[in-house]
Amino acid sequence: MKKIVLLSLVVILVFSMGGLARAQHTMSWGFELIGNPNARQVALNIANAQQELLRTTEDQSGIDRFKESLDRMAMSKAIRDIVYYDPTSDAPGYGFVPVEDGWIYYEWDEVSGSMKIFYFSDGSWTEITIDSGNQPAPPAW
Questions:
Q1: pTM (2 d.p.)
Q2: pLDDT tens readout for residues 106-121
Q3: Domain 61-133 = CATH 3.30.70
Q4: What separation, in Å, do the N-terminal and C-terminal C-alpha atoms of the chain show?
């Protein structure tokens, strides 16, 4: 009788330890996502992209999304050309960008040393000038 009780206690102890070890293993994986900021950002980006995909598939067709993407890329390139233009480089200092209701034309003015931006809408041009001025000296630490 003692042997049966002792054997059953050993069997219960072995099975309970095995279950405890499996529970620890499955419980520990979830904290990798919480403690890792890169994994959190990736998970957030995936969730946002999936949510946006569901919304855009209902509202827009594929060709509309493609056109919108091209418009954003053209505007992004124009903004980089305007903001980061280096007069000493060989890059052209002018360009056209189509927008929904008109055109944007930008041109580097050698005389004044500034970027001039023109917006065409309703048959007339509107001028915006961006003057970079003199660059100040960096701060002394």
A1: 0.44
A2: 888 888 777 888 988 8
A3: no
A4: 84
